[in-house]
Write a structure and sequence with these properties.
Elements lengths: L11 H15 L11 H8 L3 H13 L3 E4 L3 E4 L4 H18 L4 H19 L1
Antiparallel strand pairs: 1-2
Length: about 120
Amino acid sequence: MFLLNLQSKIPIFEQIQNQMIRFIEAGVLQPGDKLPSVRQLAMDNGINPNTVAKAYAELEKSGVVYNLPKKGVYVAEISFENTKEKQILSVLQPLKDSGITKKEIEHALNDLYKEEANVKD
């Protein structure tokens, strides 16, 4: 189910989280679907169960999944617009904290989207 790159600089637990979110966005996983157990997912991918547990804990913390003790982990009903906004804010907050102004961020965004428009033309 998961394609994990063990040589990647991206931690394995983050790879699991990212793929889980993509599966949900794509409709592969639906709200209420039961996820593989920590032990099963770890065995299937040859990774440490603690890595899977960390990924599930982070997903639960962000509201993507919920845990029913003794029953398993399930996909939660989520709004992706809210999730996308949280992702954007998590990127922007450190920039703001480091002293980058709103105008500087807007300028960088305008440049980024201008470059994308030029590539598409």
